[in-house]
Amino acid sequence: MADILVVEDDKPSGLILKKLLLKSGYNVAEVVETGEDAFRAISESRPDLVLMDISLPGELDGIQTAEKIFNTYNIPFIYITAGTDGPTFERAKRSMPMNYIVKPFNAQSLTSTIEMALFKFEMESRLRESEENRRIIIDAIPDSIFEIKSDGSPLTEKDAAILKRLWSPDTRKQAIEFITRAIDTRQVQVFEHINHEGETKIFYESRIIKTSSPALLVLVRDISDRKNREFRIHSKLSTLEETVRERTGELQNANTTLLEEIEKRNSIEQKNTILIDLVEQSPSCILIIDSTGVVTYVNNSFSELSGYPKSELIGINIAKIPNPILPEADFLNHLRGKDSWKGEFYNLSRENSLYYLNATITRMRDSEGKTVHYVVNAENITQQKHDELDLERMKKALHGSSAESIDKDMDWQTWKEKMLSRNVSRTDKSIFHNINNSFTQGAGFGTLITFMEMISRTSKPKEDNKLLVDQTLFTEAMKNVKIAQDCFKIFAGIDWIISNNIELEHKSMRELYTIIKGIISKNRQLIELNENRVILNEYTNALNDIHININSQYFSEAISELLLNALKFSRPATNIYILIYAHNNTLRISMINDPVKTGDGVLGIPPEYEKIVFEPFYRISRLVYEKYNSLDFGIGLTFVEKIITRHGGEIFAENILDHSDIKKDPLIKVNLMISLPFSSGKGA
Predict the structure, then answer these.
(1) pTM of this prediction?
(2) What is the rounded end-to-end Cα distance, in angstroms, of the chain?
(3) Strand, helix or coil at 604?
(4) CA-atom Rg of the chain in angstroms
């Protein structure tokens, strides 16, 4: 557990804090009363966290001490306060604490605040490390980089110095068109320009990129060597063409029959032009790749499909992954021992959408039989692939709409007696109101009754003692039969868990992490429905000796149900935190989310209902969440509670306050926490 230094000039408060921290499983490095003593203690023990009273006696108050500790030792701190005046509070905000706690202290709130602060500090440290790595990478790029505003002016003085060196006044005027186009299209804009240094011309290529920030990024590269090579090649070509023309004239004067050869050559060139136009305008995607894997030609169809201009595609080496052409670096291995290969492949376009191709790759050889090029001729089958997926979804929908026979009738009387034997004092009228809603309204039981009444009224008798039923009514009724069946299956599952022993398996913490990561990955699509993110704290070596006994199947179902519950009741585009940690010889799994308001305007779980949320049919919100494909009858958390109880553990629901942003009022978050005992003889 974490080592914590307490800096509190009030001795009774310091003693209370120390006892609470020790009881919660933390190590208390020392309890000191002044800022000077705090620096002495840190130099001796280097704690993981400091709990700092804002008001301290001596030359350094709590705020000055906290800032100096953080700047010197990079140790996070949490303020202790019983309320401060306005100026002091403003100073405290500017010192950027991880959080703060308010007297009098509460053990549970203290633990949650410390864990959230440690987690936030770890995340911020990683972010700073990532930014440093980004700076190192940018410094290694040979291009000159600076940022500009939308009007072309530099963002900072450093940017101004680079811009002045690389962009002349004429270049800045030229750049306005490309800046506007980059903002409007959000695509990279490239243009070339020249700088004069004395009698020397320096050629540059500028790339203007619109980032997510208001500023634009400019990358400038010196292309003088490339331009000079192009000029030399062009000069040589001009000389060669002139030589050919002179020689042709000599031959024409020497032999009039050469006119016929010229006509033939013109005819061939015309045919070649037609062939080139045909390839360019072909709906098929055509590419030519040399023997080393470098792209030498692409036609318009592939350029349009991939979203990349030809100038960016030509020269790419497909052996380097990723690339916007072929997804496999070793595709040439498919051609070993044969002259052609046929198959499908896919890749991402510039707009990050998938495209699919049905391709034939043919080997081209020279007169000596040596491979010189590969020709890729591919048909765009993207729409066909989407159609196949749509058809598959339709098949599944048709299968799902057909009625499934009920495997076994539910022993309703037995289940009812179990429910009536529970402590009635734990329930209230809200539960029975939700039972009424679950069985009489929405999909499932209530809708099924309505459809059956409509079928009864509208069906027409036939002579052979059969009824003619409207197909639409029957189909919709069977959909609700399926929902009712699923509900009864959950009832049966709860009943089985209550009535039978669950076989438990000995698992290490690393195995548990693997299970939970698999659950997160499996639910990735549901997580992205409302742009939520799930953040799991990292595995640490301190957990290596901890083992627990679980049933992998039921434990996974319980965690999945908790994650689904958090997704349904979280605000869009917020984080869901899963914290796994040891606490007093128990393993704790906390799932924390930012709740949405209920229909009654309540944020989070009303305190009086923190235990009732696990009762059957109790629902804080009466909304139906169809896109999560779940049964909204209020029995999901009941199912979880029975599983955890059978594991010898407990589950708690509570509201916690997040004080991490002291500029705003504390944020209410919902914490669903599982507590499981360590396996006997392990992890103490």
Answers:
(1) 0.36
(2) 12
(3) coil
(4) 36
